[in-house]
Amino acid sequence: MKRTLLAFAVAAACAAPGAFAENEIWTTYEIEKSATERLPLILSLNAEVRFEPDAVASQFVLRPGIGFQVNDRLEISAGYRYGQTVRDGDDQIEHRLWQQAEYDLFKVGKVEIEGRTRLEQRQREGADGTGWRVRQRISLERPLEDTSLTLVVSDEAFIGFAETPWGNADGLQENRARVEIEWEAAGIGWEAGYLNRYRNGVNGAEDTTEHNISLGISKEF
Description:
Elements: H1 10-13, E1 25-34, E2 41-51, E3 57-71, E4 74-85, E5 92-108, E6 111-124, E7 131-143, E8 150-161, E9 171-185, E10 188-199, E11 208-220
Parallel strand pairs: 1-11
Antiparallel strand pairs: 1-2, 2-3, 3-4, 4-5, 5-6, 6-7, 7-8, 8-9, 9-10, 10-11
């Protein structure tokens, strides 16, 4: 359930991975803190930095949240997301409120199937309108034989509604498919993998496909 082992390897992103990423290198650092055994609340803080292949930072994200462990198979949470995209001229700033449920679906042999459903309310600085979006992710996890590694394959669809003038379009906006390896060392969760990102063009823009590297580190307290 708690396989949020996403990325912060900035040093690595500035070195060798730049030679292999066609579009971007996504790095994230995440920490989680459980409240008490009697009060199953989980505090989380997620930070992301995305780099161009030449190691120039292109986007910064900060996402605090608070969650509630309903049972062994279900966690619900909510929070805020700040995003800043670097551009020529003024940077693009986006504020989001989000609510989500993470849940175990079923298990087939050694493969665990999990889901995450997230609802977002998006606002852009300097633009009117609030865009709503649903993000649905399904992931498959399988431990690799005779290793401490776990293979994770996931797909996440971004479905927009409440269209806005600044580009929150109705329908499929984006899809992210990931293949990653996760492991734990020195009490820290690590991950590294490949991210395929499809973006549905809006306002006359062309559809795009990116081939990105994802790197990650996480810690639970």
